């Protein structure tokens, strides 16, 4: 059932819902990745490998901070999808108020911290001296957009929680078009604008984010959407803020742990020089395409699971898992084949340096063969997150990254005296995370939350028709 407010995913064909709900998100991801590719082409082909390396060392820091936004907005997605599935719209409205207060507030705080500590973090990452100054300037400009990014993520996630993945796509399209136009104008100083070089890409992002978040606020208000932002009613909002934090903090920790893991891995790669860093950056662009379907299928699965758990349809959740594995696994195998057979062709899109390409080919041969493990992990994590058990997927991320990937990357790279050790560690960590996530899913322990749920006719004071995230057994990945 569809309406202007969203889509009821508790009825109808599961594979149809997965496809129709995921496709706009995948298209949005492709749009963003297309912009990322265009940006990498401008930087890599026209500004050189030094500028590409500067972006590469800056992005893990950005991802670490944005991981907090993703965690909080994952909480909003789970809570909105569960309330929407259970048809409890008063609670949904309060969740919206709590989410927007937290999102904009955290965005402002983290922007300030990022401006102050950017140089210290980049030094700790062993950033090559010849790209340090550019990296600091780029990162500080990028941090200005954090409050806007947090707000955009929150609105997008809540729309998706109601089964609406089309509206975020339309606004994301507008954002990508605007950034694509602004990029060369600000990089090269066309039409009388200042020539900003690498920093022009960061300013293009900031301007586009501002325009889009304002437009999205206006659109939702005019549409009369249940998640249209308003000045929050702070009285009685404490319980909802606490509920969002119960899910959001573990999810944010998970996202930030993943991004911090990439900071550590990037630091290890940096130790092998500018060529290795640039190769890592170029090959990571291919990863973005490979991971895109898996990440978006995982988000779709989380929303479908949340709505159906809210409605008490456990049998449909099992069906979501089976179809998710089929779709996500098949697509990732096709992408692995292309990355392994045509690595040079893919890498030459971003960089023409033969030495960088040689190192990047080795990355794609090793890491590209293991994409399927990553994609299947997102399916089981999607179910676990949909139940509200964000602590579990946080632990899975902790095991994969900090118990396995980072230590093994350090040890292997030193033992082999090559960044190849890092590539092998990344591949093996995909396998470890899939095994742990699937093991937890098949154990059925995530279903303990369902035992606390009563009928939808129960009053709000004596029962909850959705799993209480603070009482569930133990919670979106985003880490790459």
UniProtKB/TrEMBL annotation:
<dbReference type="GO" id="GO:0006811">
    <property type="term" value="P:monoatomic ion transport"/>
</dbReference>
<dbReference type="Pfam" id="PF01554">
    <property type="entry name" value="MatE"/>
</dbReference>
<keyword id="KW-0050">Antiport</keyword>
<feature type="transmembrane region" description="Helical">
    <location>
        <begin position="54"/>
        <end position="80"/>
    </location>
</feature>
<feature type="transmembrane region" description="Helical">
    <location>
        <begin position="169"/>
        <end position="191"/>
    </location>
</feature>
<feature type="transmembrane region" description="Helical">
    <location>
        <begin position="101"/>
        <end position="125"/>
    </location>
</feature>
<feature type="transmembrane region" description="Helical">
    <location>
        <begin position="203"/>
        <end position="220"/>
    </location>
</feature>
<dbReference type="InterPro" id="IPR048279">
    <property type="entry name" value="MdtK-like"/>
</dbReference>
<feature type="transmembrane region" description="Helical">
    <location>
        <begin position="362"/>
        <end position="384"/>
    </location>
</feature>
<keyword id="KW-1133">Transmembrane helix</keyword>
<dbReference type="InterPro" id="IPR002528">
    <property type="entry name" value="MATE_fam"/>
</dbReference>
<keyword id="KW-0813">Transport</keyword>
<protein>
    <recommendedName>
        <fullName>Multidrug-efflux transporter</fullName>
    </recommendedName>
</protein>
<dbReference type="GO" id="GO:0042910">
    <property type="term" value="F:xenobiotic transmembrane transporter activity"/>
</dbReference>
<dbReference type="GO" id="GO:0015297">
    <property type="term" value="F:antiporter activity"/>
</dbReference>
<keyword id="KW-0406">Ion transport</keyword>
<keyword id="KW-1003">Cell membrane</keyword>
<feature type="transmembrane region" description="Helical">
    <location>
        <begin position="320"/>
        <end position="342"/>
    </location>
</feature>
<keyword id="KW-0472">Membrane</keyword>
<feature type="transmembrane region" description="Helical">
    <location>
        <begin position="422"/>
        <end position="443"/>
    </location>
</feature>
<feature type="transmembrane region" description="Helical">
    <location>
        <begin position="21"/>
        <end position="42"/>
    </location>
</feature>
<dbReference type="GO" id="GO:0005886">
    <property type="term" value="C:plasma membrane"/>
</dbReference>
<feature type="transmembrane region" description="Helical">
    <location>
        <begin position="391"/>
        <end position="410"/>
    </location>
</feature>
<dbReference type="InterPro" id="IPR050222">
    <property type="entry name" value="MATE_MdtK"/>
</dbReference>
<keyword id="KW-0812">Transmembrane</keyword>
<feature type="transmembrane region" description="Helical">
    <location>
        <begin position="137"/>
        <end position="157"/>
    </location>
</feature>
């Amino acid at each position: 059932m569809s309406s202007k407010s969203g889509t009821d995913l508790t009825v109808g064909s599961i594979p149809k819902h997965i496809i129709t709900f995921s496709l706009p998100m995948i298209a949005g991801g492709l749009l963003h990745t297309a912009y990322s590719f265009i940006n990498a082409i401008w930087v890599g082909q026209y500004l050189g490998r030094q500028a590409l390396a500067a972006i590469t060392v800056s992005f893990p820091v950005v991802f670490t901070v944005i991981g907090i936004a993703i965690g909080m907005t994952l909480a909003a997605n789970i809570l909105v999808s569960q309330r929407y599935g259970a048809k409890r719209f008063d609670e949904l409205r309060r969740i919206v108020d709590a989410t927007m207060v937290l999102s904009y507030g955290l965005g402002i705080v983290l922007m300030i911290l990022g401006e102050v500590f950017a140089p210290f973090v980049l030094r700790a990452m062993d950033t090559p001296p010849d790209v340090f100054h550019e990296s600091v300037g780029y990162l500080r400009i990028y941090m200005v957009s954090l409050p806007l990014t947090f707000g955009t993520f929150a609105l997008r996630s809540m729309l998706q929680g109601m089964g609406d993945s089309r509206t975020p796509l339309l606004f994301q399209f507008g954002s990508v078009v605007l950034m694509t136009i602004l990029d060369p104008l600000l990089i090269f100083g066309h039409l009388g604008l200042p020539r900003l070089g690498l920093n022009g890409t960061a300013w293009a992002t900031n301007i586009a984010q501002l325009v889009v978040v304002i437009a999205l606020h206006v659109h939702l208000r005019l549409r009369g959407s249940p998640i249209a932002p308003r000045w929050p009613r702070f009285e009685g909002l404490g319980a909802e803020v606490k509920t969002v934090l119960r899910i959001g903090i573990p999810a944010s920790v998970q996202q930030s742990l993943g991004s911090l893991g990439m900071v550590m891995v990037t630091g290890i790669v940096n130790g092998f020089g500018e060529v290795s860093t640039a190769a890592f950056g170029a090959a990571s662009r291919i990863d973005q395409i490979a991971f895109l379907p898996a990440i978006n299928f995982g988000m779709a699965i989380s929303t479908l699971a949340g709505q159906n758990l809210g409605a008490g349809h456990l049998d449909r959740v099992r069906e979501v898992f089976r179809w998710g594995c089929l779709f996500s696994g098949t697509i990732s195998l096709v992408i692995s084949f292309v990355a392994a057979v045509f690595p040079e062709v893919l890498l030459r899109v971003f960089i023409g340096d033969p030495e960088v390409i040689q190192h990047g080919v080795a990355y794609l041969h090793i890491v590209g063969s293991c994409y399927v493990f990553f994609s299947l992990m997102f399916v089981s994590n999607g179910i676990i997150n949909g139940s509200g058990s964000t602590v579990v997927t946080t632990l899975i991320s902790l095991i994969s990254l900090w118990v396995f990937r980072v230590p093994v990357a350090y040890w292997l790279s030193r033992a082999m005296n090559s960044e190849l050790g890092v590539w092998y560690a990344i591949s093996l960590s995909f396998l470890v995370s899939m095994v742990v996530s699937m093991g937890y899913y098949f154990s059925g322990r995530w279903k303990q939350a369902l035992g606390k749920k009563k009928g939808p006719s129960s009053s709000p004071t004596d029962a909850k028709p959705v799993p209480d995230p603070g009482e569930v057994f133990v919670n979106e990945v985003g880490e790459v």
